[in-house]
Amino acid sequence: MPEYWESFLEKERKEEYFKKITQFINTEYSKGIVYPKKEEIFAALRATPFEKTKIVIIGQDPYHGENQAHGLAFSVQPGTKIPPSLINIFKELSTDLEIPVSKTGNLIPWAEQGVLLLNTVLTVRAGEANSHKNKGWEEFTDKVITMLNSSDNPIVFILWGKPAQEKAKLLNNQKHLILKAAHPSPLSAFRGFFGCKHFSKANTYLRNNNMQEINWDLSR
């Protein structure tokens, strides 16, 4: 775990709300199947250090199917069938930047370049979407977002769908760029996600702030 996030986690673990989360998920893992694996719950923070974060893409809760979730929002494990929302993300990326639609749904290369893929809820019961909603994870991830908002480095916050857009109230640092669109799920992608051009807009913002752009091409 990068030093900044490790220090942050150490502080939060002492808070009462976090002790309740820990107790809850320990019970959940002991009595059934929960995703992601316990050691991957904080994989997003592990993959993207605070000081290297350039873009934050906010998801909801982890995928609840077998061999999908591994701790990064929208990302799936290597060799796993690409979920519909991620297919739509790749379609928009292809239209926006003429990048071929990826054959892998593993987004680790994005995370390693500074794209924090943060779900607002970090665990889920197998086969039960939103089963760990309102159990305390939201307070934790709100604190993560608030810490990122305080960064002196320009960050692009990408908010897809209403739950993610609600996080905009935590973002008041004028250095940052906030991009909003409909969620990429098949139910809403045609209501403003397709054509949002968030990938090129994010890179333009990074370039204008003398920062390295993200190479979104997963085939490299």
Question: Keyphrases for this structure?
Answer:
two-stranded antiparallel sheet, 220 residues, alpha/beta, single chain, 8 helices
Write the element-wise H/E pattern from the N-terminal end onward. Answer: HHEHEHHEEHEHEH
Helical residues, percent:
25-40%
Q: In what order do the strands lie side by side in the largest sheet?
A: 3-2-5-6
Give the class from helix and strand content and strand pairing: alpha/beta
Beta fraction: 5-15%
Basic shape: globular
Distance between the termini: 26 Å
Tell me the major beta sheet.
4 strands, parallel
Count of β-strands: 6
By DSSP (H or I, 4+ residues per run), the number of helices equals 8
Radius of gyration in whole Å, from Cα?
A: 17 Å
Unreliable parts: none
Query: Mean of the pLDDT scores?
Result: 96
Structure, described:
With 220 residues, the chain is of the alpha/beta class. Helix content is 35%, strand content 11%. It has 8 helices and 6 strands, in the order ααβαβααββαβαβα. The chain has a 4-stranded parallel sheet. Strands 1-4 form a two-stranded antiparallel ribbon. It is globular and about 45 Å long. The two termini are 26 Å apart. The mean pLDDT is 96.
What topology emerges from the helices and strands here?
Layout: H1 3-12, H2 16-31, E1 34-35, H3 43-47, E2 55-59, H4 84-97, H5 108-112, E3 115-119, E4 124-125, H6 137-149, E5 156-160, H7 162-165, E6 177-181, H8 198-208
Question: What is this structure, in a nutshell?
Answer:
This protein is α/β, with parallel strands linked by helices and 220 residues long. The protein has 8 helices and 6 strands.
